[in-house]
Amino acid sequence: MPRKKPFSNKQKKKQLQSKRERKRGETGSGPSSRNASLERGDRQSDTSDSETTDIRRINQQPGGRDGGHDPNRFRLHFEKESKEEVEKRKRAAMENELKSVTDKDLETDICDIYPTEKGLTFPRRPSWNYEMTRESLLRKEEKSYREYVDDLQSRNPPGSLSHFEHNLETWRQLWRVLEMSDIILLIVDIRHPVLQLPPDLYHYITGALQKQVVLVLNKVDLSPPPLVIAWKHYLTSQFPHMEIVCFTSHPGQPYSTILQKKRMRKKVHWSVAGGPLDILKACQGITAGKVDLSSWERKIKSDAVAELADGGGESSVVMEHQSDSAMEMSSLSQELYKDGVLTLGCIGFPNVGKSSVINSLVGRKVVSVSRTPGHTKYFQTYYLTPTVKLCDCPGLVFPSRVDKQLQILAGIYPVSQLQEPYSSVGYLCERTPFLSVLKLKHPSLSDNEPLSQEPKWTAWDVCEAWAERRGYKTAKAARNDAYRAANSLLRLAIDGRLCLCLRPPGYSCLRERWENHPDLPEIMALQGRTNMAEASDEEGESSSEGEEEERDRDADDDDDDEDDEGFKRPPKRDTEQPSGFTINMYDVLKENECE
Ligand SMILES: Nc1nc2c(ncn2[C@@H]2O[C@H](COP(=O)(O)OP(=O)(O)OP(=O)(O)O)[C@@H](O)[C@H]2O)c(=O)[nH]1
């Protein structure tokens, strides 16, 4: 028998590390692997057939073992930023003093994000017929896509467009979902809905496709109720032919708005989510009796009863994997409600909670949920009941003129793969009362030094101070690890624990109206709470630093494991009058939460 090769501890550690990364399906999430991830990302093979510019491919997955399915086919492709650009932003984050923006500056008009004259459309599928071969169809689609990108770039000077999806394969998925669905559930995050609602998409669905859109304002648990109402009114005024439904998959979970020291272990009870009934009602209004939705209504009722009785229903759901050929030749003019079945297509940007909405509608977990954007790779359909089919689609980033920093904070980019996170931290800090919330000590101040005047803060100072507070040190020199601190702050923001919410135009002037709106109790009931102070009332057991460290390291991992852990039901509360809305809406973190 041949002698075993000696295997050092270092090699073993490396082997385990790469195994873990393979399992996670991404290239590095810790500080030690960040450079490696960039190098690997560039070297690995890519299957994109749509490269038109210098593209960065994100979320590289290990190749399929059977050699058939290619897991990289649908990963995110964004335009690469030049080294100089990245360096410039990093320098600015180190040098520029942070300046708080005014309330008014948080008001965002959709026309500033999607200005009509800039041609911010999305790629369309070119026409086809059954005489065409598969190859000629694919070639035609590629050509048309290249022309689309050229046109977009000719109308928008370099650097003016935000990140958007450059992977044609993912756009193909959207085409199929739009073609096969009867009603489109367009899901957006209530914290920044105008970022994720491309007017061109709305006009295409309601115009060319002649289909109806139900806008799902998701994650309402993360927003002050008056703001939810204000957004709903603003969006109705902009898109009058669209049903708008508020939704949350995490009702009554204090985790949503509080920066907590402990690791909040939670099990999501999908069937207690707020909003499925409203989606049903919107669909009943649209279908107007043309399809029998009584089985769906019965399902919602029986799930609620089962939830009360034993904590969850166990209805079975038939899942269909779509084959490539089924994908390629579906007709644009497919008849509505074919075979008496309503098909609902769930579309939206990455991380807005599409999979969570599907799980909530089904009443249990059928789709994997993750805080890593771009997690949903391939569209699948699920029979909710014999007459209602749900169709999940990978998240898509449409071209817009929004700040890239805000895009990062909206969770479209995997944080662990950011080359330069500091400017996004700066963007966040200028729009939130970060000093009082995070309780930071300026890195230039020594322990007992009296404060002669308020020190000036840069984004870099914030990261250093947070690293000091959290004990994040670089491995070699044991200096404060600003990169890791920046990642940690961005994750807190994306998860909604350090909450940045945009506001519709005119919000400040009409504030009183929204704060006294008759719909407030309804929104708060949906959120599972009765007043704003409630979020600050929640207390939990403290946990060790080690647990928090663990959370940081694994912050881009799936949420799915949480399903197996203990769940504390939100306490039931008496109805109270809404109060406290005049306080700064960011004042959601308690005094001692960063201790
Ligand atoms: N607070 C809060 N978090 C939510 C809600 N819905 C989803 N999330 C979280 O948002 C993150 C993304 O959720 P997903 O359902 O995976 O989002 P997705 O749109 O399918 O994401 P992609 O796969 O990237 O397209 C996860 O961390 C969820 O736990 C919600 O209603 N409230």
From TrEMBL:
* Biased amino acid composition, Basic and acidic residues: 37-46, 66-94, 566-576
Q: Which keywords fit this entry according to its UniProt record? A: GTP-binding, Nucleotide-binding, Phosphoprotein
What Gene Ontology molecular-function terms does this entry list? Answer: GTP binding; GTPase activity
Which SUPFAM superfamilies does this chain map to? P-loop containing nucleoside triphosphate hydrolases (SSF52540)
Q: Where is the CP-type G domain?
A: 171-399
UniProt cross-references to Gene3D superfamilies, sorted A to Z? P-loop containing nucleotide triphosphate hydrolases
Comp. bias regions, Basic residues: 1-22
Please list the residue ranges that the record marks as compositionally biased, kind Acidic residues: 535-565
Extract the ranges annotated as region (Disordered).
1-94, 531-595
Q: What does this protein do?
A: Possible regulatory or functional link with the histocompatibility cluster.
Q: What is this protein called?
A: Guanine nucleotide-binding protein-like 1
Gene source species: Knipowitschia caucasica (Caucasian dwarf goby)
